[in-house]
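Sanity check

After download, print the first record. It should look like this:
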Amino acid sequence: LKVSGNKVSLPTLDYPVDQGIKPVLTDKQLDLHYNKHHKAYVDKFNSLNATQYNDQTVFDVVKKAVKVPEEKVLFNQIAQHFNHSFYWKCLTPGGKKDIPADLKAQIEKDFGSVDDFKKKFSESGVSNFGSGWTWLIYDINTKKMSITNTGNAGCPIVDGENIIPLFTADVWEHAYYKDFENRRPDYLKELWQIVNWEFVNSQFQSAKK
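Expected structure tokens:
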């Protein structure tokens, strides 16, 4: 993801919006989330004329803008653009059922079992008060995975070069209310059916290099 000139664009998804992310998210939910909510963050950022960030990566802009109190509005837009773009990569229609062996071994080492990890992650997502994101992250210093919550536009990449996001669940209500109304626990329970474990593993492998 890059700021071209001083503008960003919606990413092209790896699946058609008009088909949803089956069997969990309908086309109406995906269209609303991607074409309305995500697009609103893109449009707002583009309206700010952020020439100081011309031709930089979205990743770098997030890490720089968070340090500038006067750029809080800008940070919220660019961080939400990053967060949503990452979230779309974490999902795929039908999911990738098999967790690559190396990734699975690390999950089992840090959480006990894959089922224990899913339970802890979902519980963390349910308990994330208000709007925000729940993340699986990897610390390249400690070589351990952990689960963390961020509020609103919060993003773990601002916490240091050693923190690598592997997976995220959007727990803003706009992520699920067309399909699940206010039932966040149900949304998080079903989300495992559409996780793109190949993407999660690609993040993990990059983090270990």
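If your output differs, re-run the checksum step. Summary of this record's structure: The longest strand covers residues 132-139.
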